[in-house]
Amino acid sequence: xxxxxxxxxxxxxxxxxxxxxxxxxxxxxxxxxxxxxxxxxxxxxxxxxxxxxxxxxxxxxxxxxxxxxxxxxxxxxxxxxxxxxxxxxxxxxxxxxxxxxxx
Length: 103
What we know:
It is a single chain. The chain is mainly alpha-helical. The chain folds into 2 domains: 4-46, no CATH class; 52-102, no CATH class. The chain has helices at 4-8, 15-25, 27-30, 35-46, 52-64, 74-86, 90-102. The radius of gyration is 23 Å and the shape is elongated. The termini are far apart.
């Protein structure tokens, strides 16, 4: 039975999302009858909702590959955007950088 707050739209999730999550949480009950549907539900739940992360990657690559850095090797070109996207913000690293420069 779908909860009333999900039906009425007061919840943060839609009825489809609620069903898929409920379906996957009770996987052992459904696996013998609907193995292919469970697989499809797992794929649907794991799909990204937007394309923001590829856009962030392209933006980071554009910031990395400047005229001054045009001679970087591929391994470094792949590592720098990863640090830029997933790394800590600059302000939190300043004490470490200052200590490294001081020494």
